[in-house]
Structure formats: structure tokens, C-alpha cells
UniProtKB/TrEMBL annotation:
Principal location: cytoplasm
Stated name of the protein: Angio-associated migratory cell protein
PROSITE patterns: WD_REPEATS_1, WD_REPEATS_2, WD_REPEATS_REGION
Highest rank taxon of the organism: Eukaryota
CDD domains found in the cross-reference section: WD40
Cell location: Cytoplasm
Keyword Repeat listed: yes
Keyword Repeat: yes
Natural source organism: Canis lupus familiaris
SUPFAM superfamilies registered for this protein in UniProt: Quinoprotein alcohol dehydrogenase-like
Start and stop residues of the WD repeats: 88-130, 131-172, 226-253, 355-396
Keyword terms of this UniProt record: Cytoplasm, Repeat, WD repeat
Composition bias type Acidic residues, residue spans: 39-63
Length: 468
């Protein structure tokens, strides 16, 4: 996709009739970052015994594994200011994933290369329980919609679910090599994609199962649409399938010239589920109508950095889309690239609005709910906040001594939670709002997939909490 100022919107791209314009704001501004300091009725009917009652979770703890201010220079080599508030440091190897409980935003779960996952309290870093029994690196972890269950998955395909209040394991299953995992937004239903091309759906804890068979290649990313009746899955051969979760059949299939020309890396949906955004190693982001299954827009970066600063000792690789998402209050979409470019696109005009450059590759981005602020984390160990209306950097958060590789954003707090390449997880707190969590590792949700991590350097891992 090219900018309006240089070559205009693509002529063959149909307009989006349902989106409105938002003023006569300038279309593009390039921001160079200074390197210095600074989610159903049908499904419920199918699974009639699903209990939607919410239960209050206990917040008991029995161990301590946190420090308020980690010592400088202990992990990694990115020394500098530490803005963090809490550090969780029970992992003995890289932390690959991090997630916050959606109901209270008081609990975190982290998984790592040490084949372990931990559930801990965000306020003080106190360990609640360990999710033990995994056989490989834990690359996926997350809480159910009501925060009563927590699921963890490792690279070998072993998935486990625990009851949060009792701290007991209630379900487990061995699938193929795990690519992604996600909870249903309204029911205790877990979905996962595996390297054999299958997408799995289980009702937890009784284990009722459905499989959605894709092409003979890995299902690299997936997302349940907000209506809870459909899911979009991306595959290594570049195809995109929109599945009917009740019928178990594909509604739309995009392949060949309609699909991507490389493996998909990430997928996102807007709030009402009418639009889907997909990213790929072909460096394209495709805007797809969830109703018609047609591509209604294609976005490409304006320029590509000569060499992305992926990390010392790593082989250089071509640019790719690593993360993307929709703004909830304006017709904007953000796309993060491996070369460090954050591109803000106007969906009404399908033009590049702003281009914000990072010094290292972007791993993940998340939009703040109810605002036009987008958070990014990158391989330089910094979380940044950007105003998508102007393209300007608002602030950044530091404290990690190695690459950040995953993060999550507290809904109540309007603050992010991330993962990085050290043996701990960290968090920040915004002024007058709730905490942010930051964790470390070599994998990310919707970003640098563990399957692509064979050439990454080895890192240590921890989690940190910042006061924003």
C-alpha cells in the first residue's frame, strides 16, 4: 500500500462503504525516533451444558518471587534506566508468553523455555501456583473469558487447563506441534492451531472436541471473531480460512492470488467483527470483509530498512509483518514490521497516515481501548506509546535488559503487558491507572512465532511491572 502523498491508494482496491471519514487531518508524517534516552447463541446452543456463571477467584499466594527493583546488569546487556515497579523472576530460562486475567486484571500467567508456566499476582509479584507437567517450552498461555480457568500450551502440543481458585489441573490434551492457542470470548471453549494444519476446539473441562482440517501445512495463526460463531485461521501456504464453529466447515477460503504469497504471521479483527486484518512474511497486510470473504484492501510499507536490527549474532532476514490491529475509536489500523516500521493506515481512504520508525524490529503492537494510542514493543527492550492521530511518540517504558517478545494490555488499566528476553517479567503503572505487565522471552503472540525462533540467540527471562 502506498502513501497518498506519493502514489495514492491502489486503483483496484474497492472502497469501504461502512467506514466514515474523521476530519481533514494530514495524511502522512514520518517520525524518526531519537536513538537516545528519551469474545454466541448458536455455539451456546450446541454446547448447552456450558456454564456462563462467573465465579470469584481467590487470590491466595504461598511463595515469593519478585523484587521491586532488579539489579542493573544482572540479565542481558541492555543497561539503562529502569522504570519498572515489580519484577517476577521465578523462570530459569527465557519467558515466551504473558497474559492478564480479563475479569479483574489482577493476575498474570507467564510461560517459558524452562518448560514451566506460573500464575502470579500482579500487585506484588507473589506466586499463586505453578502450571507444572509440560514437556517442552511453554509458548502459549491465557485466561478464560471469566478468569476462572487458565490454559497453557507447549511447543510439543501438550495443553493443560487449571481451575484458578482451586489451583488444580482440570483438563489436558496432546495435539500436534502447537502454533497458537486462544480462548473463546464467551464460553469455556479453547481453540488451538497445530503444525499439521488442524485447528482444534475443545469444551473445557469435559473435553468435547471438534477439528477443522486445513491444508497440509501449519495453521500459523488464528482468532475467534467477536460474535463467537466464526474463527479466522491463517496458514503457512498463505491461505486464509473463515470457519463456522458450529458447522465445522469453512465459510470463505482465500488462496492463490486472493491470499498471501507467504506464511501468515498474525491476524486481527475489528470490534464488530466485520473486518479482518492479516499479516504475512510477504510483507503485506490484507484487509478482508468477514461477511463476503473478499479482500478490500492491501497495505505495504513505503520503504524497507536496509537491514533490520534483529539482534546481535543473528542472521539478517527480509522484512515481514509481525503484528497488527484496529483502533476502536477511529477508522485506523496499525501494522508493525520486522524492520522497525510502525505504519498507521487510514481505512476510510486506504492511505498511509503516519510512519513511525523504531531502531529495532517490532514484535507486537496493541491499541489502547477507547483511545487512538497504540503501544509497541520491540527488540531493543523498550515499550513505546504513540499517538496515532499525529504519529508522535508520547513516552516510552524501560527496565528490560534484553529483547521484549510479548506483551498484554490491561483493559481496566489501559496499560500494556509484555514479554522479553530475560528470566523475569516486568510491569509498569500509568498515572492514576492500573498496572502494566512486562515479561521476557523469545516468542510472542502474533509476533515472532516460536516456530521461527531456531536462529534466535539464547536469552534469559523475567517479568517486570512499571508505574506509568
Amino acid at each position: 500500500m502506498e502513501s497518498e502523498s506519493e502514489s495514492g491508494a491502489a486503483a483496484d482496491t474497492p472502497p469501504l462503504e461502512t467506514l466514515s471519514f474523521h476530519g481533514d487531518e494530514e495524511i502522512i508524517e514520518v517520525v524518526e525516533l531519537d536513538p537516545g534516552p528519551p469474545d454466541p447463541d448458536d455455539l451456546a446452543q450446541e454446547m448447552e451444558d456450558v456454564d456462563f456463571e462467573e465465579e470469584e477467584e481467590e487470590e491466595e499466594g504461598n511463595e515469593e518471587g519478585w523484587v521491586l527493583e532488579p539489579q542493573e546488569g544482572v540479565v542481558g546487556s541492555m543497561e539503562g534506566p529502569d522504570d519498572s515497579e515489580v519484577t517476577f523472576a521465578l523462570h530459569s530460562a527465557s519467558v515466551f508468553c504473558v497474559s492478564l486475567d480479563p475479569k479483574t486484571n489482577t493476575l498474570a500467567v507467564t510461560g517459558g523455555e524452562d518448560d514451566k508456566a506460573f500464575v502470579w499476582r500482579l500487585s506484588d509479584g507473589e506466586l499463586l501456583f505453578e502450571c507444572a507437567g509440560h514437556k517442552d517450552s511453554v509458548t502459549c498461555a491465557g485466561f478464560s473469558h471469566d478468569s476462572t480457568l487458565v490454559a497453557t500450551g507447549d511447543m510439543s502440543g501438550l495443553l493443560k487447563v487449571w481451575q484458578v481458585d482451586t489451583k488444580e489441573e482440570v483438563w489436558s490434551f496432546e495435539a500436534g506441534d502447537l502454533e497458537w492457542m486462544e480462548w473463546h470470548p464467551r464460553a469455556p471453549v479453547l481453540l488451538a492451531g497445530t503444525a499439521d494444519g488442524n485447528t482444534w476446539m475443545w469444551k473445557v473441562p469435559n473435553g468435547d472436541c471438534k477439528t477443522f482440517q486445513g491444508p497440509n501445512c501449519p495453521a500459523t495463526c488464528g482468532r475467534v471473531l467477536p460474535d463467537g460463531k466464526r474463527a479466522v485461521v491463517g496458514y503457512e501456504d498463505g491461505t486464509i480460512r473463515i470457519w463456522d464453529l458450529k458447522q465445522g466447515s469453512p465459510i470463505h477460503v482465500l488462496k492463490g492470488t486472493e491470499g498471501h504469497q507467504g506464511p501468515l504471521t498474525c491476524v486481527a479483527t475489528n470490534q464488530d467483527g466485520s473486518l479482518i486484518l492479516t499479516g504475512s512474511v510477504d510483507c503485506q497486510a490484507q484487509l478482508v470483509s468477514a461477511t463476503t470473504g473478499k479482500v478490500v484492501g492491501v497495505f505495504r510499507p513505503e520503504t524497507v530498512a536496509s537491514q533490520p536490527n534483529v539482534g546481535e549474532g543473528e542472521e539478517s532476514e527480509s522484512n515481514s509483518v509481525e503484528s497488527l490491529g484496529f483502533c476502536s475509536v477511529m477508522p485506523l489500523a496499525a501494522v508493525g514490521y520486522l524492520d522497525g516500521t510502525l505504519a498507521i493506515y487510514d481505512l476510510s481512504t486506504q492511505t498511509l497516515r503516519h510512519q513511525c520508525q523504531h531502531q529495532s524490529g517490532i514484535v507486537q503492537l496493541l491499541w489502547e481501548a477507547g483511545t487512538a494510542v497504540v503501544y509497541t514493543c520491540s527488540l531493543d527492550g523498550i515499550v513505546r506509546l504513540w499517538d496515532a492521530r499525529t504519529g508522535r511518540l508520547l513516552t516510552d517504558y524501560r527496565g528490560h535488559t534484553a529483547e521484549i517478545l510479548d506483551f498484554a494490555l490491561s483493559k481496566r488499566a489501559l496499560a500494556p503487558a509484555v514479554s522479553r528476553c530475560s528470566m523475569s517479567a516486568a510491569g509498569w503503572r500509568a498515572p492514576s491507572v492500573a498496572p502494566i505487565l512486562l515479561s521476557s522471552g523469545r516468542a510472542s503472540m502474533g509476533g515472532l512465532n516460536p516456530a521461527r525462533a531456531s536462529s534466535w540467540p539464547s536469552f534469559t527471562a523475567h517479568s517486570i511491572l512499571w508505574d506509568i
